[in-house]
Amino acid sequence: MSKNSLPIKSREKHRHSNSALLFSVMFALCFIIAFSVMTVPSTVAKENDSKKQNDDSLVKGTFKGVFTAVKFDISPPLAEIPPIPPDGICTMRPDEESDSGNEGPYGVQDMDSALQSINGPLLIPAPSVTFPALGNLCNCSPPDPNGDIGPNHFVIMTNLSFAIYNRSGVLLYGPALNNTLWAGFGGACQTQNSGDPIVLYDPLADRWLMTQFTAASPYMDCVALSTSSNPLGTYYRWAFPAGGNVLPDYPKYGVWPDAYYLSTREVSASLIGAYALNRAQMLAGNPTPQVIQFLVAQSYNNGDGLLPADFDGERLPPAGSPNYWLGTMDNGGPYGAPQDAITLWKYQVDWVTPANSTFTLTNTIPVAAFDSVFPCTPTSRSCIPQPGTTNKVDILSYRQRPLFRNAYRNYGTHESLVTNQSVDVNNGVTAGARWYEIRSPNSSPVIYQQGTYAPGTTDGIFRWMGSIAMDSAGNMGLGYSTSNATAPNYPSIKYTGRLSTDPLGTMPQGEQTIVNGAGSQTSSTRWGDYTSMSVDPVDDCTFWHFNQYFATSSANGWATYVGAFKFNECTPRGAGEPGPILLAKSSNLVISWPALPDGCGNRDYAVYKGDLAGLLSTTNYNHLSVTCTTSNTTTYSMAMPSDASAYFLVTSESAFDEGSYGRNSGGTERPQAATSPCRSLQTIGACPP
Fold it and tell me: Which residues lie within the region annotated Disordered (predicted)?
């Protein structure tokens, strides 16, 4: 299918410093020449309107039923479990991430019509934190590096090891084989160490989710969920059987208020798996939490996998929102897609009547033309050149799917999803990262902006294997791998980004380095298969990227590095308000929250307890009980409630500002609120400095 270039529309005027404004004018002029397309906002771009199918023609997943774990326990504190030391033996499945067997001939290879072929000046801040992490301790490839940041820790998982650091990079635990997490558990989760790990911090519950699969029958998804905010503490542990007893390849998880969502690529059965794990039950330590399963036959509508939305930020999704899953299709790819597009699926779970749950492809959203098929040679995974060797490494762009994560954020005025995929640029001239921001995912999904970041067309550097996220101010950070055939451009880890005020469809802030590589991979072609970009839950501004590189040339001696950076244009959370509080029932119901800054005068707080629906109300707090604290007290203890779950909301007032404001358990600001015993609540800004 041929594609027409999308029109260039007028841009919003933005405020910059004098120097930045001058650059913006020059940079915008360069982009008008360098870009063959610029993505435009949904308010003016009918060309980007999504295609919403009629109910009768919707592609729907097949509901396969409800099941639960075959094994459960509560671990000892991780700090007391001796790490199983890496032994240099690769126990990964040999055909992990293999072709599906459903691939057909490629279609027409398009020229990229959203190409950013030049780099901006160096405006993006340098890393504030960097530190080396795990190396190849299992003699295996690829590393599958991913990590997440919490209030006090950075936790990483790779094939086939994990480690826990503090926020400065001090090693607190490990390195240990991943199946250390299931030591003493019994069964395949304890005895196998097969990889494809995922670690996610759940910011709504202040918990850690750590997972990997087993690669021999009976196949399992092994899940460990911390019982507290401390990743060195105890864990609830489950072994969930893979539906249909097939390898649950390429598992990807997402945190959402009503579930932990899991996607799988069940290659041996030519299926895409879509699972919902009952999050409330898991947080409560239920030995047999519900798991709902849907299956979808593999086609161009889902390609080689889908990504569930993963929650970022303070504001919860609107009540009743489904989880949004994204896929990607290329008309030049192997599955016969009719166009280049993003597919948006909605997973609506019903825990009371699981059979009423739905998993549906609701929108196919056309995107600017791209090419996912890189001319790899001599093998299908020999793609990206490196200095000092003829060995090339994998780009994985030919896999028809977006790259981890599908990051969701609710800004109040709009909801956004951001993700990316590696792409070919100009038939192998270079590689780039195509990124997307999708807005209004529930009502009228639209590509608000998109771009292919590929300055390699001018500087010769290949950029691929990216991960992207947005901060609380709407700025984006994109991290990725870089390399080319000429020293000193060894495989390295770099990042770029954009401010919310930058021209749409651009990453004009320049490029910074987390670590420069000093060697190449001389044997294996595998790279990735994924990486991670996370946003700090403490300030909701700092980006944390984790990826692989090579410190010295070797057959397969990959290493990993962590880097963090923040735009000055993002105001850290916590400048005058308590953070969001959402606590499931636990054995210790002592609630605490951040103290407000000095200079605010004496602070009183109201602690509300209620059901979740009442606390999420936008008109009043609908509380069941309220208690006031005084004299800047920032903790509150209560007797164990009889509720299955207890949810809390803390609001505050100050003699200094003569008013108060509140945030619900997801951080949503209240325009008005009911009268409390402490004082009539009204919305005001943060306490002045």
Answer: 85-106, 659-678
